[in-house]
């Protein structure tokens, strides 16, 4: 993330992170504090109390996920890479994301995967976080869309595995596409703009690449290409730290 930056630039980048993190955490804290004060000091009917507790819990959940996004970006990509079963990881993350998809009225489908396990050289935790980031974005792009669908497919092409994540959501303009991966770039009211910065960095470190096709109001297709295990050593991973 902080490639070849001077000490001064590093300090500036860190203060920027600290400032936006403080902002992301202070808002939900203020909200939760307000609800607790209401519950403690006013006479509320049971229904209201339950409603305030539910909102508070949602705020805390969101803060937790914001914190984990910030922590993942603060950590340099791990040097501990090993043999990782990508097809298994994809299935695990589809299961993990299914409740979020149902809540958002979006259908998730695994369209195609090779019959044999797909092995790559990676850090399993990083791969999971990357898959979550892309799927979360795809689901969030679909919330207002009728018959919303996110489909995934894994294909073996030459020396690589191509993971395609496709949605029929709001899509992006050429200008928006060109800004993808820039730190803090987000079009969402409660976005951090860190998910893709982190994901691109992890994929690059595996010797992989990301391509995107998108059209406003039609949808988006991300194609992530990662070298297969038997070819991964030939593309030495350039680690950024
Ligand atoms: P965040 O999700 O917190 O906004 P990300 O780095 O994950 O940050 O994504 C940055 C931006 O890229 C999003 O705010 C959105 O504008 C755009 N984006 C990413 N994925 C998609 C997608 N599947 N469809 C439409 N826009 C997307
Ligand atoms: Mg995101």
How is this structure best summarized?
The chain is α+β, with helices and mostly antiparallel strands. Helices cover 50% and strands 20% of the residues. The longest helix is centred in the first third of the chain and has 35 residues.
What keywords describe this structure?
241 residues; alpha+beta; five-stranded mixed β-sheet; two-stranded antiparallel sheet; 7 helices; 7 strands; 20% strand; globular; disordered C terminus; binds adenosine-5'-diphosphate; binds magnesium ion
Q: Could you give the topology of this structure?
A:
Elements: H1 7-41, H2 46-74, E1 82-85, H3 86-103, E2 107-112, E3 119-122, H4 124-141, E4 149-157, E5 160-167, H5 174-178, H6 195-205, E6 209-215, E7 219-227, H7 229-232
Parallel strand pairs: 2-4
Antiparallel strand pairs: 1-3, 4-5, 5-7, 6-7
Helix pairs in contact: 1-2, 3-4, 4-6
Protein name: histidine kinase
Organism: Brevibacillus choshinensis
GO molecular function, one term: kinase activity
């Amino acid at each position: 993330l902080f490639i070849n930056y001077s000490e001064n630039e590093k300090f500036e980048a860190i203060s920027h992170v600290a400032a936006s993190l403080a902002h992301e955490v202070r808002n939900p804290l203020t909200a939760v504090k307000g609800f607790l004060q209401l519950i403690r000091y006013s006479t509320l009917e049971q229904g209201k109390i339950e409603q305030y507790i539910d909102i508070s819990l949602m705020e805390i959940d969101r803060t937790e996920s914001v914190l984990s996004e910030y922590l993942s970006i603060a950590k340099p990509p791990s040097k501990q890479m090993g043999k990782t079963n990508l097809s298994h990881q994809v299935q695990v993350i589809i299961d993990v994301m299914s409740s979020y998809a149902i809540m958002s009225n979006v259908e998730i489908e695994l369209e195609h995967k090779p019959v044999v396990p797909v092995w790559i050289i990676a850090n399993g935790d990083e791969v999971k976080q990357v898959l979550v980031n892309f799927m979360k974005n795809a689901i969030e792009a679909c919330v207002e869309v009728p018959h919303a669908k996110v489909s995934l497919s894994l294909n073996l092409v030459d020396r690589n595995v191509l993971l395609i994540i496709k949605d029929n959501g709001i899509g992006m303009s050429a200008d928006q596409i060109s800004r993808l991966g820039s730190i803090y770039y987000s079009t969402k009211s409660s976005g951090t703009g860190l998910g893709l910065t982190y994901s691109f960095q992890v994929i690059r470190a595996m010797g992989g690449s990301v391509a995107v096709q998108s059209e406003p109001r039609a949808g988006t297709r991300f194609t992530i290409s990662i070298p297969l295990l038997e070819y991964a050593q030939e593309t030495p991973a350039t680690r950024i730290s």
